[in-house]
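tool_log.txt
---
The assistant was asked to compare two proteins side by side. It first ran the structure predictor on the initial sequence, then on the second. Raw inputs and outputs are pasted verbatim so the downstream comparison step can read them without reformatting.
(1)
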Amino acid sequence: MLVPPAYSGPVTVDAGIAALGAVALRGALRSGELSAREVTGHFLSRIEAENRLLGAFLTVTAEQAHDAAAAADALHARLARSGRLGELPPLHGMPTAFKDLTDVAGVPTTHGSAALEARPALEDSPVVALLRSAGAISLGKTQVPEFGLTAYSENRIAPPSRNPHGPALSSGGSSGGSAAAIAAGLVPFAPGSDGGGSVRIPAAACGIVGLKAGRGLIPAGQSAGDAARLVVAGPLARSAEDAALLLDALVAGAHPAGPAGGDHPHHGRHAGTYADAVVREPGRLRVAVGLSSPWDARYRIEPEPEALEALRRGAEALAAAGHLVVEADPRFDNRYPDAFTAAWTAGVGTARIRPEREPLLTPLTRSFRRRAQQRSPAKLEEALAFLRQFKRDMLAQLADWDVLLSPALAQTPRPVGWFAGPEWRGTADDDYRRQCEFAPWSSWVNVCGLPAVVATTHWTAAGLPMGVQAVGKPGSERLLLQVARMLHMPSPAPGQQPERRQ
């Protein structure tokens, strides 16, 4: 076990507004107790003070944020004069950030790669457009691994994203910069994208809530070359209530009448919002608790004691609340590792990279790209066909359960550079193996298009978060947020130590 020094926080700017949480901050902005300019200035000051150490932000768009805040305050004043504050957009004046795989109009998108010539995006991606129309204010772009391929947010263009609970440690990936920013109080919440764990892994590593939405609920994040439709968007926040608030804005903006067709049940059949639902208790749940993963046949998956303790605490909390909790491991086909890897790496093979710039790629990306280019279309289609059958098999196995509970991560957060740093002497395959052993329970959920949430259930003696992943049936995002609210031991407010459940 790795035991870094306990983290007391690099907080040099008064936490104040940042400690409120998204729900309370939204209320203060809508009432006029706080102005958008006050809030924006506060969070930008925190970023200026903290980001040198954390590396959470790649680009800070302070000028654009100040302009947006001034416009938000003008709108508030205009509506207040006519008694129409109810017409404010749902996220009026709320700061957020976008991972740098996501296009924000006028801001360069680096994709975390030195091999690309980053140019300002011509238009907003769907998720950015949704949150902008909901009144959110972007403070910048956050750190990611190259092309979002890894479970750690380190690349060749900027300092790595570090964990606020131990700056020598990684914040996870690929939404690692966003997760670190939230845990450190640099933004109240942010959207992430998840193609194999990219919302859930950094949420678990940073001690916050991360929800991977089911396929079809909200627009995908980065999806170029995503033949298996693995990538979906989802909220990252310090609490389930804050995550629900962000999810409401994403879903309402994307599907005002509910998402039609696709893999996701029509959410319009459910009364109320996610914010309404999250504070209610779920009915009695049938919970399966398991440790098996689809990587067991390929690698040595050995959960650390801290991971097992997090799972034990999560299962006991659900049982104590009256839910049926039973040990029941799903069965995984041993062909999964090759099929998933083929689908996961297909997009990097078609990325437009000039030959003379390919040496600037990381070793793992170069290896994935070479193999993807050498793989025949027939082989890729064979992998995709297997994954479609895998989905059908898994849905049948999970039919008797409302929730499948596993550890979120098999290991405590790893040191920066542990997977493939400057002193690393391993191969690209060693790097990939370490990632699969670190987070063995996440990728199959993307293949199946299911929703899943991670919540912290245990803080280690070194002050590091460890949690559980809860996987639900199609359309169960409300239930999963309720489960997260029951289980989550919150990431400490900026400048405070975490609470520890005895």
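(2)
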Amino acid sequence: MRPDTPAENVDHTAEAARLERSAGLYPQDAEALLLQAAAHLELSGDRPAATALYDRLLSDPAALDNPHLVRALKASNLWEYDHEAEARAIIDGIRATAPRDAAPWVIVAEALEAHDELEQAHETFTEGARLLLTDGEEPPYATHPLLFGRHRVRRMLGADHDAWDTLADGLSTGPVPLDELHDPGRVWSLGSDNPAELRAEISRLRAELGTYREALSRPFPVAVLHWPKQELTELTDAYPSLTAEYPSHEAHLATIESSLRELATSGTPNLGIVTGTVPSYEAFAASEGTTPADTTLLPQYATTLAARGRAVAWPPQRGEACWCGSGAPYGECHGAQTE
């Protein structure tokens, strides 16, 4: 299913079943595929079945790339069908473990917000932002929803602007400022008899819709393909013509970092890295009916891996290891390179 397929044209139950079958075919991608299946089950109204999928994933948390995300989604889902106590316990656990990924923080904070727990939602958004943001550095794309959600909740609480609110407004690319979008008095505009107020509200709604559409159109990062050293050696030994594309592993790593920096400078959001393997690449080439030596296949392979949830966000969060696999902190490895 295309990410921009209108909701009314989607059979969510059938789509969930298709994704479950795909998870059986691609066990290495089961986490991402089953999370998508659970989302479809939630949209279909079958929240107990969605919980069953979350429980299935959490039966072996050590095998998950992001167990905190799965727990957050489970908590949000549980609260929607009257399992508040269990949802709260999971949320408290996530906050206590302080994950280094923005998505779990956003999900649990929005769950609290949706159930009018505004003070707790504000605390959760703030905790996540304090943990993941670094003073003086551009906030990673993945952390933007933290800042936007915090801004929204603070407006509802009537809190004065602070530095993070100003930062959030600057990061927003919509035609309507966040202050206006998050104005708690907007609800009254819908019942107004004043044509000017109604036109202004229509403009705000269009701006929000544009933001949601942009998010839907980018369900996975713009990903650059990374080959570990051993895999790259195996690849170029098997397909010598690819040596022109990959003259050395060091050059390959430097090209990845410079390409991502150029994309970031040009304003491209949601960047990531996918790691290839030779068997996976050869299977992809076979499925496309072409040879692995075809260089035009490389970006298609990267996009396919990203669509299956294999992308890792770039740049790494503060203090995380470098994406290249050296084990050194990113800031002391490829993140230390000067532009």
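---
observation on (2): The radius of gyration is 22 Å. The longest helix spans residues 195-217.
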